[in-house]
Amino acid sequence: MTVTNQMRLVQWGEVTEGQMLPTYEKPPITKVQLVKYAGASGDFNPLHTDDAFAKEIGMPGVIAHGMLIMGFLGEYVMQLAGDKALVKQFSMRFGAMTFPGDTVTCGAQVKEVNSQRASLELTAKKQDGTIVGMGAAIITFPIA
């Protein structure tokens, strides 16, 4: 199931510890997307935009910016929070490299929950299950 701006999938009053939340699958990463991200972020390292350079240094080709993957997880957390809850904390550690053509799926498990907030464990995985990012978030619930 895909999260959209119009759909709030999580009813925060109903979540439980250990619950797996709906996942969010991004479209396959493209080389054009990497060039656009380089322009937006100011990170013009040729490892992300120049296949010849990437191959020269021993890579199979360009790789996605780690911060792009962090952005995917951040987008996911914001979608989960909806417009009535607040993201109070968000962090991520990078995992394996991500290449053009890879599809990244973001997911979360509720680690702790009380009447005011939920602590989430986040993952971003490639289509083969390889973890490309791990993180955490704290979301505070809306006031009734």
From TrEMBL:
**Alphabetical list of Pfam families matching this protein:** MaoC_dehydratas
Q: Which PANTHER family match?
A: (3R)-HYDROXYACYL-ACP DEHYDRATASE SUBUNIT HADB (PTHR43841:SF3), 3-HYDROXYACYL-THIOESTER DEHYDRATASE HTDX-RELATED (PTHR43841)
Q: Provide the MaoC-like domain boundaries.
A: 23-125
The protein depicted here goes by the name: Dehydratase
Give the organism, scientific name: Lysinibacillus odysseyi 34hs-1 = NBRC 100172
Task: Note the superkingdom of the native organism.
Answer: Bacteria
